[in-house]
């Protein structure tokens, strides 16, 4: 038990945390510091420990793996005594950038409601040809939750706005009825809770939590595939909610019919409601999304200039926003205005750089630098976590960007078998689809590959 007096957010400690960050910043490449420490907060300090809050379990894990020693040393240096470092995952309401896939609720199984990201509303959801049917369904559900379309099943590729629309419905329902009990969670969260409830024999609590709500939102249920116990539990949850006219909204990356390893009776339940898909945005919708994102960020960019970006990136809303931010930042750093010419020039210059022409050794050295590991370790036999992730990332970049064969990649990564390479690459592919941290990491690494030039 830790019964020391808590000095929670004592101002001198916050100052010291800033000092700690300053010292760490001076020792790391800027992109590393940004990626790993940029969104950390000091949660609490006691006489024994420092608790650092991060926005995702992934960041916590990576900080613990790679920077624990640096953190501990810096703490001694700044605070003058050694303290244990602990990481916790916490959603930062105001400044949170993206919805976190991590637990909205921690281990606590008591019912807690309405932890919805306020950033996602129906009002700021841009409607176009690619999503107007889904949007209309969302409006109908807000009008008559539990009645018109139950369940509402929203499906489509990554980054097209499924989570945004679903959480937007939650926020709209809550605005109309502040007492409405709303529960939003990822399918992984549901699965983890289920497993934990079995282990701790707390099924009753689990059921209270998921079955006594007015609106249940479960994100990315493709991850229910192949998990029979979870599906079974969800099936019963589903029936009970439906019987009470509680609204259920689900998202998935594909239609129920295409979900393999999903029990037939569950499939038919899902198909019994309304299924709507969201497609990749067409040109006009892309322009409208870019406009909305500029407005939100307070950036003044002409429509003509935004059209150039929309023309260049036939992609989903998430990537589009990412590109927009990249363009804005790059031009600002160069002290240039955001005009048709500067944007065209910027995009043209970037497109000329083709990662395929980069030598693989540069990929390896960039990955090593990013993760602060030695090349001999990256290509060596050790299998520690802190080496496996960089290795998988290298595999992915070499395969997908440099179009090297898996055999060749295995060879340069210390004579590994090609099936190992395929496994690593595919694992990253999957993570990239769902994990924003991983996406950011890849784009950081690719950017530094590109910015080093030839
Ligand atoms: P998905 O859940 O389908 O992977 P998200 O809902 O997380 O996608 O959307 C990714 C990002 O794009 C979010 O920042 C979201 O706000 C934004 N976005 C997606 N679609 C729209 C839209 N129609 N209007 C405004 N923003 C959108
Ligand atoms: Mg989503």
Task: Chart the SSEs and their pairings.
Blueprint (H helix, E strand, L loop, with lengths): L10 H15 L4 H8 L3 E5 L3 E6 L2 H10 L1 H12 L4 E6 L42 H12 L8 E5 L5 H15 L5 E5 H13 L3 H9 L3 E5 L8 H16 L3 E6 L11 H8 L2 E5 L4 H15 L5 H10 L4 H17 L6 H13 L7 H12 L3 H4 L6 H16 L5 H7 L5 H17 L1 H16 L3
Parallel strand pairs: 2-3, 4-7, 4-8, 5-6, 6-7
Antiparallel strand pairs: 1-2
Describe the fold and architecture.
This protein is an alpha/beta fold. Helix content is 54%, strand content 9%. It has helices at 11-25, 30-37, 57-66, 68-79, 132-143, 162-176, 187-199, 203-211, 228-243, 264-271, 283-297, 303-312, 317-333, 340-352, 360-371, 375-378, 385-400, 406-412, 418-434, 436-451, and strands spanning 41-45, 49-54, 84-89, 152-156, 182-186, 215-219, 247-252, 274-278. It has a 5-stranded parallel beta sheet, sandwiched between helices. The model is unreliable at 1-8 and 93-114 (pLDDT under 50). The chain binds adenosine-5'-diphosphate and magnesium ion.
Order of helices and strands: HHEEHHEHEHEHHEHEHEHHHHHHHHHH
Structural class: alpha/beta
Query: What's the pLDDT, averaged over the residues?
Result: 85
Classify the helix fraction into a percent range: 40-55%
Q: What best-fitting shape do the alpha-carbon axes yield?
A: globular
Order of strands in the sheet with the most strands?
A: 5-6-7-4-8
How large, in whole angstroms, is the Cα Rg?
24 Å
Small-molecule binders here are: adenosine-5'-diphosphate, magnesium ion
